[in-house]
Amino acid sequence: MRYWWVNQNQTFRHEIAGGYLWSPKRNANGARNPFYESMREVSPGDLIFSFMDTRILAVGIAQSYCWESPKPLEFGKSGENWEGIGWRVKVHFTELAKKVRPKDHIDILRPLLPGKYSPLQPNGNGLQSVYLTEVPTTLAEVLIGLIGQEVAPIAMSAAQVKPVSTDDLDSWERKIEQGVAADSSISETERLAIIRARKGQGLFKERVAKIESKCRITGVENPVHLVASHCKPWRDATNEERLNGENGLLLTPSIDHLFDRGFIGFENNGGLIISPVAHRPSLQRMGIDTTTAINAGVFTHGQKQFLDFHREAVLLKSSRR
């Protein structure tokens, strides 16, 4: 279990009631934000302290890994300058009867605050610039002690969490697909090709097959058992990129799932990257030997550019620790 602190001043009501966390991917100026990047490190069973208006008001248990998701409509004008696509994690929140004010206990908490990415200032005030940040186990244990007995059953249930599926990704892609289907500026033939490319089939697969001959991981060669997987996901790509053969790899469906959801990725030199949040026994059963280094072979220059995007924007992150 890892422990997280989330500042929810603008979005507390929506996120607590809706059972999720959501953040943009980057700052409004396009710069990386470490507190948004933290979303990519959360795993099911992690414990999250929800802070708003000087107090810890709720404790949550992460139910899912992070995934790409549009900004919730219920946010309204909250975060109106945020980009429209961000990171989302399902969380089961429990609002607390005892709402601890960390500033009242700062003499105890101060020595335990992390030197980097602390959720609190040394005087006990919150930091508006922080959204989600990891807190050390020692600090988490003291916070749990301050909150009292109502946290104990929450923490115990966290160990029993089974990851839930992220069900809005497909519905979001279907909405994009509907927009493509209704776009009269695109020829009917191209519209069909773009729509089929979402499932890794059709013209896109034909173009990928001119570069790829088998699954990069399992070695399966029969095209019947392969799909063309986008390095820059279909949902994030332009129509041109959706049909670009260099934006694809031929993969078996299970490997495609792992790649599309960010549980695996590839270095430009062919090295397989396994996300630290991935469930390794599952990967083993899906055809990935997690006990040895795997090299998937040579990529073209164009593939490397699209793989850069995948590592930067899709692959679930490595821990900072």
Descriptors:
single chain; 321 residues; ph1033 like fold; 12 helices; 11 strands; 19% strand; elongated
Largest sheet: 7 strands, mixed
For the record, the CATH class of the largest domain is: Alpha Beta
Portion of residues in beta strands equals 15-25%
Structure summary, number of beta strands: 11
Fraction of residues in helix: 25-40%
How many domains, in number, for the residues?
2
Low-confidence stretches: none
- End-to-end separation: 14 Å
- Tell me the CATH topology of the largest domain: ph1033 like fold
The residue-averaged pLDDT reads: 92
CATH architectural label of the largest domain: Roll
Task: List the SSEs and their pairings.
Elements: E1 3-7, H1 12-18, E2 20-24, H2 34-37, E3 47-52, E4 55-62, E5 67-70, E6 85-100, H3 106-109, E7 132-135, H4 137-147, H5 152-158, H6 168-181, H7 188-197, H8 202-209, E8 227-230, H9 239-242, E9 248-251, H10 253-260, E10 264-266, E11 272-274, H11 280-285, H12 301-313
Parallel strand pairs: 1-3
Antiparallel strand pairs: 1-7, 2-6, 3-4, 4-6, 5-6, 8-9, 10-11
Helix pairs in contact: 7-8
Question: What features would you describe in this structure?
Answer:
- The protein is built from twelve helices and eleven strands.
- 30% of the residues lie in helices and 19% in strands.
- Helix 7 (188-197) crosses helix 8.
- By secondary structure, the protein is an alpha+beta fold.
- Strand 3 and strand 4 (55-62) form a beta hairpin.
- Strands 1, 2, 3, 4, 5, 6 and 7 form a seven-stranded mixed sheet that branches.
- The protein has helices at residues 12-18, 34-37, 106-109, 137-147, 152-158, 168-181, 188-197, 202-209, 239-242, 253-260, 280-285, 301-313, and strands at residues 3-7, 20-24, 47-52, 55-62, 67-70, 85-100, 132-135, 227-230, 248-251, 264-266, 272-274.
